[in-house]
Amino acid sequence: MAAAEQWALFLDFDGTLVDIVERPDAVVVDQGLRDVLSGMKDRLGGALAIISGRPIAFLDTRLAPYRFDIAGLHGLEYRIGKTVYLCQPEDHPRLRGIVPRLQDVASAKSGVLVEDKGCSVAVHWRLAPQERDFVLATVNAAAEALGPEYRIQLGKAVAELLPAAAGKGKVIESFLRQAPYRGRRPIFVGDDLTDENGFNAVNALDGISVRIGDGNTVAQKRLQTPAALRQCLSAWVAGGVLPLMEEAGA
Ligand SMILES: [Mg+2]
What we know:
CATH topology of the largest domain: Rossmann fold
CATH superfamily of the largest domain: HAD superfamily/HAD-like
CATH architecture of the largest domain: 3-Layer(aba) Sandwich
Distance between the termini: 11 Å
Strand order of the largest sheet: 5-4-3-2-1-10-11-12
Number of helices: 7
Low-confidence stretches: none
Bound molecules: magnesium ion
Largest sheet: 8 strands, mixed
Structural class: alpha/beta
CATH class of the largest domain: Alpha Beta
Number of domains: 2
């Protein structure tokens, strides 16, 4: 196995490190996992980052007292060391204009939740699977009204409107141009459609891509559950071998 210092580890959050919950705000991270992530970061010489669709401010509350390098909103905002780039909602007046309308429409449908992330807005139907087509039609109409500067990101029981420039692959590439990530081989672990963009990027960089759970994917490896990944990471921090770092196909 190659030395840890040759690798950079990028981890999605929901559905990858933690199980997906019915109401997105209800997600919890146990102290054991936070400690494991911190231990991994040390072992990797700092080259560990969380790459999520959530806002950084939300993730920080769940990962405290630690502050990890992090990308939020599918790469629209990031923090690497002391450098912070936050997305400004006021730069997206047309998106802001659509949020109250989506909230109005959703309020008539029990179980449809609108998650306002500032520079993006996600509509969840996990609690109301029968409303899937309604949500998709609503979000499609909103996307058409917004035009090509915005796009729809589909996920697990969620459709999100976000600036078209957002993408996990691009932000991973940007991390890899900066210390301590520069010159390392990336590993990216994710579970959802938004992560496929990141898998493509690390595949092209001779990295290792890992998909959690079932579903079509361009990822090279697969783990079945977040619990399986957590076990893997814990064993590695405790001094074992991280199977994800074995050569793909080896
Ligand atoms: Mg995920």
